[in-house]
Write a structure and sequence with these properties.
This protein has 610 residues and is of the alpha/beta class.
Length: 610
């Protein structure tokens, strides 16, 4: 995993701009702590920071097809899991390889197939290819959007980067936030394309962008499609088991230490069990996979259920680790670490966004830091709820009947940071949400003979996969890469997603519970206690000391310039005045977000055009 950046311009000779591409590349140092490099041509500059995972010695970038007078140059981030098969095919077509890296496979796949290489890649990736022969820049992002890729126009072309901060090191791009950006941030709709930053856009998941002398063109090379499902339940169950198994085992390859995130829930337990089994097959019966969970110093005594959490994870994670035979560890965090402003600032800087989930982000960042002391790659259970229907909104009649994005019933106005009334009137977020929701439903593919219930479930899954999942993947990517850790997500395998998207809801909930098909996959490889426990979201601390510390930070945040221009202090007073031991989840999340806003404004110092 790595960080990529660069730009192309047909109005200037960029060979004299080495300090610019070096500065842009330096912003990606945390994503790639092992090495860095730049390449400059007449009209393009590419930068790369490397986290070495496969072929430690041979995968240096940017990578060119020839050492003398390159025709094609690549800067690449990610993992292509089918690179061995592609390498064999390319060798049969006459290509000669100098490294074992998947990077060179991507480069030579482009030389062989051009833009059509995107149809052959399996994995998570974002990359840029400058074709010197055609004076043409190609940007590509993986199908589910696991790896990020941003771009912005510059004179005569565009600049790109794994994170917006790379763009802001270019002299023509200023971090500016306008009303549209605040709508994107605080509407919680998770659009892909526009961002909180004016002029900065994302390459769409499953999308590619081409820049040449004719301008910029974008297209999708992959989208979810509605197809008839003809398999019976037994065949469907076996097919799901095979796809999950294949996806997890394919993502085990690494030349560095690898581990698994094991929360004690169904999703991570299945992944951990499959990977641990594969490790024993390939390295011997004594091989043990490391697994990690996070907990808080107060949880065992002070756990309190809320709208998202039904139980304490740690005992389930320990039981799952023992059942699987992993080398399991629990990282225990205390309130002081979660309140530490250096930690919180690092999280906000890594996100380049004011929107997060407070202590849950900080704890994930600290967990990744502890894991990085022993491992460079971790596997995660992210996306199983979207793929298999695990969220409450798939099951509750009120959520199914609501004419809005389903997560807003949980995370909407009650928990979002309240907006200054004058600004709220200008932003008209309610109207923006309604319009966006209608557009989102119009993008959902359907079959002609769907029942109303099946029609609605397909909408819910499409919204979850194309919006809700994206912000979770952003969170995972930014916080892990800020610690130099690569996190892989087997449930984002596009073949699994395509198949599951078209399974009828009756099969997905055939045992009357959420994620029925994944539970069937877990039979025999996970303990019954994990297989049948209710859905539990990422844990949060319940310590009164944390709540009181958060209230203190929120009061201080209101004194940061421009915070009151955005936040509604009057509404925040309810959370600020509540006794620390009685602070409810919704009020607390509002305080978390005003603290994040203050840190974001203080660090990025954006020009506000609102």
């Amino acid at each position: 995993m790595c960080g990529i950046t660069g730009w192309a311009s047909f109005h200037q000779d960029v060979r004299h701009s080495a300090p610019v591409i070096e500065a842009m590349t330096a912003t990606m140092a945390l994503r790639g702590p092992d090495a860095g490099g730049v390449w400059l041509g007449a009209h393009a500059a590419l930068g790369h920071r490397r986290l070495a995972v496969i072929d430690i010695e041979g995968g240096a970038q940017p990578m060119a097809d020839r050492r003398d007078r390159p025709g094609v140059v690549l800067t690449y981030s990610g993992e292509v899991y089918n690179h061995h098969r592609l390498r064999a095919e390319l060798q049969s077509r006459g290509h000669r390889f100098e490294t074992r890296s998947d990077t060179e496979v991507v480069l030579r796949a482009y030389l062989q197939w051009g833009d059509a290489l995107v149809d052959r890649l399996e994995g998570m990736y974002a990359f840029a290819i400058w074709d010197e022969r055609a004076e043409r820049l190609l940007l590509v992002r993986d199908r589910l959007g696991v790896k990020p890729l941003f771009w912005a126009p510059v004179d005569g072309g565009l600049a790109f980067g794994s994170e917006p901060k790379a763009l802001f090191a270019h002299p023509e791009i200023t971090p500016t936030v306008d009303a549209d950006g605040l709508r994107e941030a605080y509407s919680l709709l998770f659009n892909t394309g526009p961002t909180v930053w004016a002029g900065v856009r994302e390459v769409h998941p499953g999308g590619l962008l081409v820049l040449d002398r004719d301008g910029v063109r974008e297209r999708r090379y992959w989208e979810l499609e509605a197809r008839p499902h003809t398999d019976d339940l037994a065949t469907t169950t076996e097919r799901v088991r095979s796809l999950v198994n294949r996806a997890a085992r394919a993502q085990l390859e690494a030349d560095v230490p690898l581990c698994s995130l094991l929360s004690g829930g169904l999703d991570s337990t299945v992944v951990t069990a499959l990977v641990a089994d594969e490790l024993r097959l390939t390295e011997g019966p004594q091989a043990r996979l490391r697994s990690y969970a996070v907990d808080y110093s107060d949880q065992a005594e002070q756990f309190t259920g809320d709208v998202l959490r039904t139980g304490h994870d740690t005992p389930y994670a320990a039981e799952a680790g023992a059942f699987i035979g992993s080398d399991h560890s629990t990282v225990v965090l205390d309130p002081k670490a979660l309140l530490d402003l250096d930690h919180r600032r690092a999280v906000v800087v890594s996100r380049d966004s004011p929107i997060g989930v407070g202590d849950m982000d900080t704890s994930l960042y600290l967990l990744f830091g502890e894991i990085r002391r022993h491992s460079t790659v971790a596997l995660s259970g992210e996306a199983a709820d979207e793929v298999f229907g695990g969220y409450p909104w798939f099951h509750k009649p009120a959520a199914l009947a609501a004419r809005t994005f389903p997560w807003l019933l949980v995370t909407g106005d009650e928990a979002a940071m309240p907006i200054n009334p004058d600004l709220a009137a200008h932003l008209r977020i309610g109207e923006f949400r309604d319009n966006t929701y209608r557009g989102a439903l119009a993008a959902v593919p359907h079959l002609d003979d769907e029942s109303p219930a099946e029609h609605r479930q397909r909408e819910m899954q499409h919204l979850s996969l194309t919006r809700w999942l994206r912000q979770l993947l952003h969170r995972k990517d930014r916080l892990s890469m800020a610690q130099g850790l690569e996190v892989r997500v087997p449930y984002c395998d596009h073949r699994l997603v395509e198949y599951a998207f078209n399974i009828p809801w009756a099969m997905k909930s055939h045992d009357g519970r959420e994620k029925s098909l994944l539970r069937s996959t877990g039979q025999g490889i996970a303990p019954d206690s994990v297989l049948w426990r209710p859905k539990n979201h990422y844990p949060t601390t319940h310590h009164a000391d944390y709540n009181s510390g958060l209230q203190r930070l929120a009061r201080e945040a209101l004194d940061v310039p421009h915070v009151r221009d955005i936040a509604d202090e009057t509404v925040l007073k309810a959370g600020l005045g509540t006794p620390a031991g009685e602070l409810e989840w919704g009020h607390r999340l509002r305080l978390e977000r005003v603290v994040d806003l203050a840190l974001w404004l203080d660090h990025h110092r954006p020009a506000l055009a609102i």
